[in-house]
Amino acid sequence: MARKEEPKIQPNNDLEKKIMEAFEVFDHSGKQVVDVREIGTILRSLGCCPTEAEIQEVILATENKEATGNVPLSNFLPFMCKVMMEHRFYPASAEMLLAAFRYFDKEGRGYVTKERFTQMMLEEGEPFTQEEFDEMMQTALDPVTNTIMYEYYINQLMASIIHVKLISLFTVS
Q1: What's the count of helices (H) and strands (E) in the chain, helices before strands?
Q2: Which has more pLDDT, 161 or 7?
Q3: How far is it, in rounded angstroms, from Cα 139 to Cα 148?
Q4: How many CB atoms lie within 10 A of CB 166?
Q5: Which stretch of DSSP H or E encloses residue 147?
Q6: Is the pLDDT assigned to residue 172 strictly greater than 50?
Q7: Is the model's pTM score more than 0.70?
Q8: pLDDT 10s digits, 134-145
Q9: Exposed (0-12), middle (13-18) or buried (19+): which is 58, by Cβ within 10 Å?
Q10: How confident is the model at residue 35, as a pLDDT?
């Protein structure tokens, strides 16, 4: 006997609509299911900045228990609504980033050397991949001084975040 197909989920509000639109980009079968490997990308497209551990948390909470490797929208949507309403996985504020850089700038020079920055990003905390690091360095590194002038870099990051939010506002509407 063939399994009855679940009715399509309809959004009840703008947040659900936004989450569903991001999800549907990766729903290649059109059956409101995505591969678990797409979850990190979906989260980032929603403006979240999850760690790998947080991505695994989302997968664990939303993965189809009968057909592992897949995440159905029916599990993902309520979980992500709650996560987003709690403002979890959001990027750090400019103030938090500044405090972090100042912690590593013991001399108070207003910059961090390329070597120290490389060590922090690739070895301390949750390490970045080489690709992520290279992309970050394109914006962060001052080619003249070969340092990261962190107040300028933080301003660049914040402007980029605002730009992404504006784009998502206009594409959702």
Answers
A1: 8, 5
A2: 7
A3: 9
A4: 10
A5: strand 147-148
A6: no
A7: no
A8: 888 888 899 899
A9: buried
A10: 95
